[in-house]
Amino acid sequence: MTAVSVVDRRVGAAGQAVRDVAPLALPIAPFAMAVGAATAAADISLVAGWLGAAILLAGSAQLVLTETLVSGGGLFAAAGAAILVNARFAMYSAGFAHWFAEVPRWKRLLLAIPLVDQQFLLLQRTFTADHDVSWRVRYYVTASAVLVGAYLSFFPVGYLVGNILPSGVGLEMAGPLAFAGMLGSAVRRRADAVAAIGGAIVVVLASPVLAGLALPVAAVVGVAVGARLIGEEG
Q1: Distance from C-alpha of 234 to C-alpha of 230, rounded to nearest angstrom
Q2: What is the pLDDT of residues 76-117, one digit of tens each?
Q3: What's the rounded mean pLDDT across residues 2-10?
Q4: In a domain, 177, yes or no
Q5: Residue 227: how many CB atoms within 10 A of its CB?
Q6: 43 Rama class: left (phi>0) / alpha (psi -120 to 50) / beta
Q7: Displacement of CA 18 from its chain's centroid (Å)
Q8: First-to-last C-alpha distance (Å) of the chain
Q9: Does residue 192 sit within a domain?
Q10: How many domains does the chain have?
Q11: 3-class SS shares of the chain: helix, strand, coil, % to 5
């Protein structure tokens, strides 16, 4: 492979990543604003909140962490709640490790930091056996840069102006709704549909009781149901 063709492939991966991830970056804006507004309402400084957003790169976990602290929960309780909310990423690790199996472990750990739900589903739909590891890394890094850039850019906007918006706007639903749309387009088998419906039911029923913990619980239920049906179909 010539140097020119290598450059073309890298540019192609980056260009495709920008095109593919752009629709996902749009709903990141209101979701980031919702997290910023919640941070301001909790009397957390903009610098501390923004640094927390940059370190966690997990809006749902940061919301739960902030709300737990504001409601009087201790630091360990808040950290534990955030870890449980992000527990679903443990299920993503199998696919992530497969896509980047040829990448050194220390680099895989760094690559995993900006992974989010919508992006994982995008990678599932995009990566094929025809894509070598260098193409996948370039695609993933570019997509991550777009999403992280959008999130960290709109977080301070939400911090400064988010509290002005009416409480019923529901900005915090932007992220889950975007993910739900992508999930619907990704359903291909009966097991996928049943798993998605089962997880959705759990989210609706468990949210009033478990709040931010409803998502990881729903993910576990959905995966368990889907795996059971796949086993029966196989």
Answers
A1: 6
A2: 877 877 777 777 787 788 888 889 999 999 999 999 989 887
A3: 45
A4: no
A5: 12
A6: left
A7: 17
A8: 40
A9: yes
A10: 2
A11: 85, 0, 15
pLDDT score of 1: 46
Provide mean pLDDT across the span 11-39.
Answer: 85
Residue range 27-47: average pLDDT?
A: 84
132-183 confidence digits (pLDDT tens) = 999 999 999 999 999 999 999 999 998 888 666 555 555 555 555 555 555 5
Amino acid at 119: Q
- Could you please report the per-residue DSSP string of 50-116? HHHHHHH--HHHHHHHHHHHHTT--HHHHHHHHHHHGGGHHHHHHHHHHHTTTS-HHHHHHHHTT--
Tokens of 135: 């193409």
Query: Range of 225's domain?
Result: 187-234
Nearest to 44 by CA among 60, 23, 30, 65: 65
The average confidence (pLDDT) of the chain is: 75
Distance of CA 176 to the CA centre of its chain: 9
Entry pTM: 0.69
Q: Are residues 138 and 44 in the same domain?
A: yes
30: in domain: yes
99 and 201 in a single domain? The answer is no
Angle between helices 214-233 and 75-85 (to 10 degrees): 30
Burial 24-55 (b: 16+ CB within 10 A, else e): bbebbbbbbbbbbbbbbeeebeeeebbebbee
